[in-house]
Amino acid sequence: MKNPELAALRKAIDQVDQQFLQLLGERGRLAQQVGAVKQAAGEVNFYHPDRESEILRRVMADNPGPFSSEQVAIIFREIISAGLALEQPLQVAYLGPAGTFSQIAAQKHFGRAAVLQPTAGIAEIFRLVDSDQARFGVVPVENSTEGSVNLSLDLLLDYPLQICGEVQLRIVHNLVAKVPISTVRRVYVHYQTRAQCRQWLATHLPQAELVDVASNAVAAERAAADADGSAISTTLAAEAYGLDILVAGIEDNPENTTRFLIIGKIHTRPTGNDKTSLVVAAANHPGSLHALLSPLADAGISLTRIESRPARSAIWEYVFYLDLLGHCQDAAIAPVLDVLAQQASFCRCLGSYPRAVF
Ligand SMILES: O=C(O)C(=O)C[C@]1(C(=O)O)C=C[C@@H](O)C=C1
């Protein structure tokens, strides 16, 4: 039965889509022209995270509704990603194989037009970016339940790369398998994931053998090949390996979030919504760390994170990873960082970068 009201609305949607299509084409042509200008100027890297974060923050702020601001950001994220792909393909290395949270984080940050390169480990990401085999890398650096990913912190110090972005991803863990939970004898699980689901496992699968694997996606791959096996993995990986979601959302902490860093060789410009990450060493005498941090406090600079790690240069020597709000070029930040650098026995800026937008 024809509904004239529905037909009229669909006609109006078609007209809006046509306008959309024209504007999308115009935006793509402008991106191509921007790419040509960059090419002529001899720019090597066409990706500008500072500009992208400003666009995304603006459209979220100007969003008239009814879509949520996050949904608007997701749509514009893909438009920008497609625009950049018209200018220059973007190779991004992440902790693979396909289906890991790192892949989801990479797509959240760069959009689906980026060319993603799965790696077997975090160290390979740093190596690929350092050797220009990938332009950027996405590395997990801390989880809200389990704390820091120490390997990422150590490699940030070992490699001369810059942090040029961050992504926050709500981590939802699922028990996936080809068989019902009653027949599960083994659970393939990454060690970080195992820690984030410790209570659930102890309550619901206390007898199951827990098998450590290199990533959440490898967990799904192994479970798919094991008649009594299951995995804790992502929805993406479960689909990829033909597994059913037996139980969704089994992480112990309902706010379970992982923060990923974008590593590369570029420096960003201030956007007014930035973070700066440093690694410092205090001289080995009482009160030296306090003396190091007090200029930040005196200047009213917000520290969002401080983490100590063995310096690996001598036993019981430590370095401190500091995250603070602001860009190293900000007028309020630059002079304080100079003081800090003078007082520290070691100080290196790992990068200033736009804060995660959504
Ligand atoms: O403004 C630029 O530099 C562009 O390349 C355009 C654009 C965009 O689509 O808006 C695309 C990629 C960049 O990372 C930033 C912005």
From TrEMBL:
Protein's cellular compartments: Cytoplasm
Record domain ACT: where: 277-354
Pathway(s) served: Metabolic intermediate biosynthesis; prephenate biosynthesis; prephenate from chorismate: step 1/1; Amino-acid biosynthesis; L-phenylalanine biosynthesis; phenylpyruvate from prephenate: step 1/1
Site feature location: Essential for prephenate dehydratase activity: T258
Catalytic activity reported: chorismate = prephenate; prephenate + H(+) = 3-phenylpyruvate + CO2 + H2O
Domain Chorismate mutase span(s) in chain numbering: 1-91
InterPro entries assigned: ACT-like_dom_sf (IPR045865), ACT_dom (IPR002912), Chor_mutase/pphenate_deHydtase (IPR008242), Chorismate_II_sf (IPR036263), CM_dom_sf (IPR036979), CM_II_prokaryot (IPR002701), G/b/e-P-prot_chorismate_mutase (IPR010957), Preph_deHydtase (IPR001086)
GO MF entries: chorismate mutase activity; prephenate dehydratase activity
GO biological process: chorismate metabolic process; L-phenylalanine biosynthetic process
CDD domains given in the database record: ACT_CM-PDT (cd04905), PBP2_PDT_1 (cd13630)
All residue ranges annotated as the Prephenate dehydratase domain in the record: 91-265
Function as written in the Swiss-Prot or TrEMBL entry: Catalyzes the Claisen rearrangement of chorismate to prephenate and the decarboxylation/dehydration of prephenate to phenylpyruvate.
Protein name, UniProt field: Bifunctional chorismate mutase/prephenate dehydratase
Organism field: Acidithiobacillus ferridurans
Gene from which this protein is expressed: pheA
